[in-house]
Amino acid sequence: MKRWVGVILAAVLAGVAVVAIVTGNQGGDEPEVAVVRGVIGSEKKPFFDDPRVKAALAGHGLRVEVDTAGSRQIVTDVDLSRYAFAFPSSVPAAERIKRDRGATVTYSPFYSPMAVATFEPIAELLTKAGVLSNSGKGHQIFDIKKYLDLVAKGTRWDEIPDNSTYKARKRVLLTTTDIRTSNSAAMYLSAIGYVANGEDVITSDAQVAEIAPVLAPTVLDQGFSESTSEASFDDYLALGAGKTPMLVVYEAQYLAHVFAGDGAIKPDMRLVYPSPTVLSKHTLVPLSADGNRVGELLTKDPRLQSLAAQYGFRTTDPQAFAGLVARTQAPAAADLVDVVEPPTYERLDRLITTIDAARP
Fold first, then answer.
1. Which end of the chain is more exposed for a tag (fewer CB within 10 A), N or C?
2. Which residues have CB under 8 Å from 172's CB, separation 6+?
3. Strands 277-286 and 85-87: what pairing?
4. Whole-angstrom Cα distance, residue 332 to residue 345?
């Protein structure tokens, strides 16, 4: 009897061992997930927080965790040794990081033109003032030169003729983020600096010295500025024209809500395009092998490219963006011709520090 009990027990144990081996092998087929940390511009955080984006990256064995900072802060203040990649919102900042960190490659998986978010009553006043006009292609154009003329005169909203809708006594000024920390403000300076510099990219310290006094009021007369584009856009959405009659934004910030149909963009809100404008190319700098994998996937993976388009970014697949615009009737420019390049990081930094030195 004992002999039969021993045989049965041995068979049971053997069966358990087989199940354990099979189960172990099945578990071994699942990819190991590597945690990859990056620092990004704040406007990209909703994209990285999306469960669909997380799932797409996890399918390639990556769990990406991100911290946010202003793009200029990423260059100057952030300890990049803690991260596998840096993902600022412009090429000049990325190129500076690449050089400082000895990186050999960068990735630009998507981009966004700089735009202006405003409201219908403000748009009507800007049209009367000659600043805003129709492109004839379904979007409106914000004339930077005519805007700078208003700034030079110190024009206030209640001084615009036939103004019965927005009689605010404050000056006609675009709201921006803090030029000392944020890329969107730096890109704004690139566009208005191009115009102030005689329709040319700023290339010398002499040019900076000449145009800085012209541009300073556009920045310093705003008063307090938010440090990130996400915070300033949240104010635009929540507080309306009384707080922010017109705000420099990434086109993607506005269109992401239009594409989502989440109700954040109210009927009286408007998206218009500066002329000239600057393309903000969101450029990832890998600081490790895993960071390089993130850059490759964001650039080449069709699922991630499609999701980026849903967040308003223009990607390497133009049809993805165009399809969303057509489906939602979004007020996006199909093509932008009047686009200028930003100065180098060093020249733009000199312009920013020169203007900031004039701060009271």
1. C
2. 129, 147, 150, 151, 155, 156, 157, 160
3. antiparallel
4. 29
Measured at the CA of 357, the angle between CA 356 and CA 360, to 5 degrees, comes to 85
Show the tokens assigned to 297: 């996937």
The structure tokens listed for 122 are 């403000």
- φ, ψ for residue 250 (rounded to 5)? -80, 135
β-bridge mates for residue 111, sequence order: 281, 314
Enumerate residues 6+ apart whose C-beta is below 8 A from 305: 109, 110, 298, 299, 315, 316, 317, 320
For residues 26 and 34, give the distance between their C-alpha atoms in angstroms, rounded to a whole number. 19
pLDDT band, residue 264 (cuts 50/70/90)? very high
Contact in structure between 208 and 351 (CB atoms under 8 Å)? yes
Residue 333 near residue 171, CB atoms below 8 Å: no
- Are the beta carbons of 251 and 332 closer than 8 angstroms? yes
Q: For residue range 316-359, what is the model confidence (pLDDT) as tens digits?
A: 889 999 999 999 999 999 888 899 999 999 999 999 999 999 98
Domains of the chain: 34-111+281-328 (3.40.190.10), 113-279+335-357 (3.40.190.10)
Using only C-alpha atoms, what is the Rg of the chain?
A: 26
Pull the structure tokens for residue 326.
């057509």
Per-residue pLDDT tens for 190-209? 999 999 999 999 999 999 99
Q: Are 42 and 68 in contact (CB under 8 A)?
A: yes
Tokens for 131?
A: 């600043």
Query: Which candidate, 307, 331, 336, 142, places its Cα nearest to that of 255?
Result: 331
